[in-house]
Design a protein that fits this description.
By secondary structure, this protein is of the alpha/beta class. Helices cover 38% and strands 23% of the residues. The structure holds 2'-monophosphoadenosine-5'-diphosphate (ATR). 2'-monophosphoadenosine-5'-diphosphate binds next to helix 6.
Length: 277
């Protein structure tokens, strides 16, 4: 049986084994998928051991996505631009590194939430790895503009400069939160780590255009602080990142197995489970 795994530290609460087991059942693919805890200083060794034991591919999560990028022999263009890898595929030519986070986000937005990107004004909050991982796929949706706002302004500006050549007709800017006043957006995505600390980026209240969607990459049983604030500030709809989690997994599964699972039932099951606590 072909073996796959998600590797991270910590890893105990990862939902990836459950998601991929459901995909395998649904598509009739014979494979196993496990969770691997690697020591913080033992990522490369753990990958080599898994590969030597017959592993075919891995998902990579915190804190190893940059190391996974360095370890891969070749990269997909979206992984190359992201500078980080969440999916490894092992074959006779070595290790291919991909990044399916952005494609997963875009699919959740467009297919699950019905939020078209073409011609829209998008605001991305944060300028760390989470933002970098989704920029190229978001720009592929041909928005009118993509603004990156971050606490450390220079990081937002650097990312904007890096991605501007790949933006097509979209205008790409980097700024601080205090420069957002007077601007309105159709889609606001929280990619900061602020929610982890129960905090919120300081945002002006008139940020949301009519019909705007506020999307948090985090998820949980209750709406995140960002989602609650967005509703209070006039966002028409809010969503958390559970759909992105399932869709990035589907994208990895498709890369490995050449077949795309249907995500709707898997996402609904996971949501029920989380709601039940
Ligand atoms: P990740 O890989 O999850 O993106 P990261 O690279 O450490 O993690 O980036 C975290 C992001 O969250 C950064 O944009 C960070 O802002 P700075 O670049 O100014 O550090 C942002 N962030 C973290 N805590 C925050 C907070 N309390 N308020 C606003 N932004 C925060």
């Amino acid at each position: 049986m072909d073996r796959y795994a998600v590797i991270g530290n910590p890893i105990a609460h990862s939902k990836s084994p459950q998601i991929h087991a459901a995909f395998a059942r649904q598509t009739g693919q014979a494979l196993s998928y496990e969770a691997l805890l690697a020591p913080v200083d033992g990522f490369a060794r753990a990958v080599a051991d898994f590969r030597a034991a017959g592993g075919r591919g891995m998902n990579v999560t915190v804190p190893f996505k940059l190391e996974a990028f360095a370890l891969a022999d070749r990269h997909t263009p979206r992984a190359q631009m992201a500078g980080a890898v969440n999916t490894l595929a092992f074959d006779a030519d070595g290790i291919l590194g991909d990044n399916t986070d952005g494609a997963g986000l875009v699919r959740d937005l467009v297919a699950n939430l019905g939020c078209a990107l073409g011609g829209r004004r998008i605001l991305l909050l944060g300028a760390g790895g989470a933002t970098r991982g989704v920029l190229l796929p978001l720009l592929g949706g041909e928005p009118a503009s993509l603004t990156i706002a971050n606490r450390t302004v220079s990081k937002a500006q650097a990312l904007a400069a890096l991605f501007a050549p790949h933006a097509g007709r979209a205008q790409v800017d980097g700024c601080g939160f205090d420069q957002l006043g007077g601007h309105r957006f159709d889609l606001v995505i929280n990619a900061t780590a602020a929610s982890l600390a129960g905090e919120l980026p300081p945002l002006p209240a008139d940020l949301y255009a009519e019909g705007a969607l506020a999307y948090d990459m985090m998820y949980g049983r209750d709406p995140t602080p960002f989602m609650r604030a967005a509703l209070a500030d006039g966002a028409a709809r809010v969503a958390d990142g559970l759909g992105m989690l399932v869709e990035q997994a589907a994208e990895s599964f498709a890369l490995w197995r050449g077949v795309r699972p249907d995500t709707a039932a898997v996402l609904a099951d996971l949501r029920r489970q989380i709601d039940a606590g």
